[in-house]
Amino acid sequence: MRRFLLSILLASIGLSGFSTTWVINTSGFEFSPDDISIQEGDSVLFAIGNIHRVEEVSEATWNANGNTPLPGFNTPFSGALILPAQLGVGKHWYVCVPHASGGMKGKIEVNSTTSIKHRPTASALKLFPNPSNGVFQLELDKGTPASYVQLDVYDTQGTKVYAIRNLEQQSIHEIDLTSLSKGLYTIRIADGAVIYSNRLIIQ
User: Fold this and answer.
1) Residues 94, 131: Cα–Cα separation, whole Å
2) Which of 92, 120, 123, 158 could form a disulfide with 196 if both were Cys (CB 3.0 to 4.6 A apart)?
3) Which residues contact 142 (CB under 8 A, 6 or more apart)?
4) Are strands 21-27 and 30-32 parallel, antiparallel or unpaired?
């Protein structure tokens, strides 16, 4: 019981210090998206195929479609979660090591928290009740021309454990995650241009 209460406390602290997890997938031999701008303190999840492996490289290596690594971030085959400590403010160039010569590469720009004019906030993605028994309502409160969005749920290890495609953006939806274990999860909504996320506690 004490351990669970401690996890609730830590999750509450995490909710007050909101950050976003950005997800980069692959489409064939391209990263999708291949150029993102994020905020200092955000994470990036590479959810890529098992034939792909990411290395951070210099701008010169990136321009030359090379794969000589920097001491920056990297992933094993199939990808991994890149934490804020590995994503300093500035531009990060990366390539798929086996396919760099074919131009499979991307960029991440990390903006300082003092220079961000606008970013998604936790209040834009409303989850209630939270904590929940696994059944909760989701409301995306923002102006967007998108009619449908994509919903993904990740556990604390960055593993996708639930997904819904073509979710109607303007409605309030009841989501049932009672099949998942108790703990902390990240709910991510993508409308094709912006990614919003919030934390959900299942108890």
Assistant:
1) 37
2) 120
3) 120, 124, 196
4) antiparallel
pTM of the shown model: 0.52
Task: Give the domains, in start order, of the chain with CATH numbers.
Answer: 2-18+120-202 (2.60.40.3080), 21-111 (2.60.40.420)
Residue recorded with tokens 């979710």: 167
What is residue 91's three-state secondary structure? strand
**Per-residue pLDDT tens for 119-176?**
454 556 788 998 999 999 988 765 555 567 778 887 877 677 888 877 776 678 899 9
Q: Which of 91, 93, 97 is nearest to 67 (CA)?
A: 97
For residue 66, the SS3 value is: coil
Cα–Cα distances in angstroms (integers) from residue 34 to residues 62, 89, 95, 131, 144, in the given order: 13, 18, 10, 35, 22
Confidence of residue 191 (pLDDT cuts 50, 70, 90): low
